[in-house]
Design goal:
Number of domains: 1
CATH superfamily: TspO/MBR protein
CATH architecture: Up-down Bundle
Number of helices: 7
CATH topology: Ferritin
Pfam families: TspO_MBR
Family: Belongs to the TspO/BZRP family.
Structural class: mainly alpha
Distance between the termini: 49 Å
Membrane topology: Multi-pass membrane protein
Strand content: under 5%
Number of strands: 0
Oligomer: single chain
GO biological process, one term: tetrapyrrole metabolic process
Low-confidence stretches: none
Largest sheet: none
Protein name: Sensory protein TspO
Helix content: over 70%
Order of helices and strands: HHHHHHH
Length: 148
């Protein structure tokens, strides 16, 4: 039952990316040359969502409620908000602020989960890396299009 709950929570967050899609507005923005290809985003996010759900489930079943699970929930909310802010509202500045919160929540999860379940903590490292890249991309697109 817990696995189904964690899967549903992760699917709910992922649905934000399906509802608020890049579309023609994003395609028209200037982007840095190192922007990952469009196909990479759904592939990478699909893998990351599996890791996020599995890490949360592992922690819950192994230790129950903890500060690490608070950070797990916080990162999921911030994750879901980003697509709405960036693509839905077209507020790259607010999306960047959300990404900072997301990055801090991921680090918070890793730090607080590490002593409880090192595997769960390590499962968040690829997520931290991808969100770091996404943050740099968000900053770059914001700067390149600030006066556009």
């Amino acid at each position: 039952m817990a696995a189904a709950i964690f899967a549903c929570l992760v699917l709910f967050a992922a649905a934000s990316g399906a509802v608020f899609k890049p579309g023609t507005w994003y395609a028209s923005l200037r982007k840095p040359g190192w922007t990952p290809p469009d196909w990479a985003f759904p592939v990478v996010w699909s893998v990351l969502y599996v890791l996020i759900g599995y890490a949360g489930w592992r922690l819950w079943t192994g230790t129950g409620w903890s500060l690490a699970l608070f950070f797990w929930g916080l990162q999921l909310v911030a994750n879901a908000l980003w697509s709405w802010l960036f693509f839905g509202l077209r507020r790259m500045d607010l999306a960047l602020a959300d990404l900072v919160l997301l990055w801090l929540a991921i680090v918070g999860f890793i730090v607080t989960a590490l002593p409880l379940d090192p595997v769960a903590a390590l499962l968040f490292l690829p997520y931290l890396l991808w969100v770091s890249v996404a943050g740099l991309l968000n900053v770059s697109v914001l700067r390149l299009n600030r006066l556009a």
